[in-house]
Structure formats: C-alpha cells, structure tokens
Amino acid sequence: MREETRLIHGDARPHADFPTLTAPVHRASTIVFPTVQSFLDRHQQFYDGYSYALYGHPASRELEARIADLEEGVRAVAVPSGLSAITLVNLAFLESGDHVLVPDTVYSPARNVCGGLLSGLGIETTYYDPNETGCVADLIRPETRLIWVESPGSMTMEIQDLPAIAAAARARGVTVAVDNTWASPLFHKPLTLGADLSVQAVSKHIGGHADLILGVVTAADETIFRKLKDTSRNLGLGVSPDDCWLALRGLGTLSARLARQSESALQIATWLSEHPAVERVLYPALASDPGYALWRRDFTGASGVFSVLLRPASADAVAAAIEGLRFFRIGASWGGLHSLVAPSDPRGIRTVQPWTADGQLVRLSIGLEHPDDLIADLERGLATITEANIAEVS
Questions:
Q1: Is the pLDDT reported for residue 5 higher than 80?
Q2: Which of 11, 61, 10 is nearest to 31 (CA)?
Q3: % helix / strand / coil in the chain, to the nearest 5?
Q4: In what order do the strands lie in the sheet with 144-150?
Q5: By the 8 A CB rule, do 58 and 31 touch?
Q6: N or C: lower Cβ tally within 10 Å for the chain?
Q7: pLDDT in tens, 217-275
C-alpha cells in the first residue's frame, strides 16, 4: 500500500453498529470496569489498552498508530504540543549530570528549554555547528546521553548529515532524536537513517488547518517507547480526543497539501532567488543551496517552508513591505492552508555559528493560494523596499 493510500485508509475500527469512514471521538475522562479485579488490574492496560483517558483513548491510539506507521517506527506517544514532545524526550533520556548535544540552529523555544529547565536540573547542553558533521563525534563525552538533530535548521535551513551523526552516536551508545516537523514522515524518515526518536509538531503539516496544538514522538523500538510513555505519565501529558480527531482528518489530505505547497514553494523560491531585492534564498530544494546534495540523498521532497535573506534596507521599509502583503499574514507557525510570513533575527541566539548577515531574514510558509498570486503579492512588497532604498539614496 502506497503512502497516499495509507494516509486515508488507516486502522480505524468503527463501532460495528455504526460503520463510518472516520474514527469516532470519545469525550470521556473515566474508564469504567466490569469487575473489582479488572479495576485493580487496570494499570496493566497502560501501554496497550485503556486505564484512564489521560493516558490514552481511541482517537489518540489511532493517531499514534497511524503516525508510527508512516515514520516506520514501532510505537508513538501523542502529547499536547510540539514543544512538549521535545521536552518529553529530554526528560525521558536525560538526568542530572548528563550532557546533551544540540545544533546551534535549533528551534528557539527548544533552546530555551535547554538553558532553563535542563540547566536547572543539572543537565549540560553543548551547541554544535550543524554544518560540521565531524565535530559531533568529537563533542561526545562519557556523560553524553542524547544528540538532537534538526534538519533543516530552524529559520536558516541547514541540512544535517543524519546517517553520519547516528553512526557516531551508535558507536558511543548515545540516543539520537530528530525534529522531523519540516519534512513530515512523507518526505523524510529519520528512523530508517539511524535515529532512535522522531519528533513532530502535529500542529503544523499534519494538522494542516491552523486550528490545533499537538505533538508526537515516534520510537524506533519498544524499550524506547515505554521509556517515553512512562515519563509522559509522570508529567501528566494527556491529549484531547477532539484535537486527535482533527489531526486524523489532516492526515487524509497531507499528501495532496504537501505536494501543492512544495511545488508552489519551489516556483516562488526560484523567482525570489533572482529578485534584485533578495540577497539569498535558503531552501534545500534549490540546487544552489549548500544542503542540496544531502537533501537529495536523504529526503524525498521539500515542504513549503523556507527563508529569504533580503538585501540591506531600513527596518521601517521592511516592516512596511511585510505589513502591506495581502495574502501573507504575519504569524509564527507554518504548514497550514494560508501563507504566512515571519521576520527573524538569529543574531541574538546563535553561539557557535554566528549569524552576521546585514539584511533582514524572513521565513515564508507557502499555503494553498495560487503561486502566481503569491508572487505578485511578494513583488509588491519587495517593490516597497526598493522604492524606500532609492528614496534614501536620493
């Protein structure tokens, strides 16, 4: 069965007396038991059955099974957000005195977790250059327990050599976790490339409609899954059946949406790369991108998210250009039906790979609007910057 078909025809088990195409939603907190003994034994159902809705219900189990299948993993754990999925991995595999390696280009809230929560627990973080694969092996210490990979990097889109990093980690007995949100399981399968864990913000591509917050972690084996599940229980990480239902709905259209967004993004990125107001387009699917060869080797597609480095211009001109866009709304998320724009300044958070560019960095999330309309919208915005620069020179 091909993935486009698997996205629609999953393992949903409708009630025999109410056969439907969609998984049912059970809004409940309490599971009832027929006997005293079954109640006393309820904790034996923690991993595979139902003991209390905080720990799983039919919609969450269905979503977890579907995503684990797509990731080619063993089991998955759904949690309330992408950030909680990252934090769950950290707390499941790290304890006081341990050491974690994190790419310098990591998602900034994840960096905050390292500098705040993990540091407070006595866990040390070392940031590494995502472009220097060999440095990862050199940075592994006896107390290193976890290596994070985020490929492409947040905002600046660096592609990492996951197989090489996984091989170095495996030789030292270190767990590897990958944030796979950008590509989704359709375009990238980290577990088949040596990773132990694959994390996704379901809020993005899988949800696809900007109307839910959810995360998931997929494990490569049962032991890893149980460690995640045990930690999630101790943290009280439950998920709403309605949010899981929305995510299941999103899975059905994921392939079609990603195909359209990817095609439009490549067209728009190519056009932007030739625009006089643009210094550089950061998108692994462009042959000019430094990560293109690794992307071609390890990925089967690119999502509709990429960044643009503008040529130097005043902050007022850039703000006016962004605020004047008609179809690109200003927002921090991505992966939905609507196109988004998010200005970014990596200079304040990088410690290993300094960001020294003078121009404004802008991340675009390409939605399902017609690409010609989006190009025309961007043309108007970039013209505002060009006119402001000319006026300033005059």
A1: no
A2: 61
A3: 45, 15, 40
A4: 75-79, 215-219, 197-201, 175-179, 144-150, 99-103, 124-128
A5: no
A6: C
A7: 999 999 999 999 999 999 999 999 999 999 999 999 999 999 999 999 999 999 999 99
